[in-house]
Amino acid sequence: MEELMLVDDPQFERILECVFGVQAHETRVYFQVLELQGSTVSELAGALDRDRSNVQRSLSTLCDVNLVHRERRLLEGGGSVYQYFSVPVPEAQTLLHGAVDEWAETVHERIDEFGT
Fold this sequence. Notes:
- The structure is a single chain.
- The protein is of the alpha+beta class and 116 residues long.
- It has helices spanning 2-5, 12-20, 24-35, 41-48, 52-64, 89-113, and strands at residues 68-74, 80-86.
- It has a single domain, classed as Orthogonal Bundle (Arc Repressor Mutant, subunit A).
- The chain has a two-stranded antiparallel sheet with strand order 1-2.
- Helix 2 packs across helix 3 (24-35), helix 3 packs across helix 5 (52-64) and helix 4 (41-48) crosses helix 5 (52-64).
- This is Putative DNA binding protein.
- Residues 16-73 form the Transcription regulator TrmB N-terminal domain.
């Protein structure tokens, strides 16, 4: 959050990175999933021109912060594949507001505790 406070006009992508502690490449994956809802790791790797393992790690991080979720789809010939879905931007905004509010509340508590 400290980095974010030093920027006069932060972009939405930078806010996502700072608030959720994700990297720029993970933010790019979020926006790619947003465009290609229901895509697989392979499809995303192709669209992003990145290695599948890198995309998989990014998706795992995004799932951890609730910006992306996955659903298992059974294949006709057997086996399964995971499809990824990102939360819509309004929901991401709500998550961001909640995280910032929680952080601000903690800061206010520390301020109030100072000197007691």
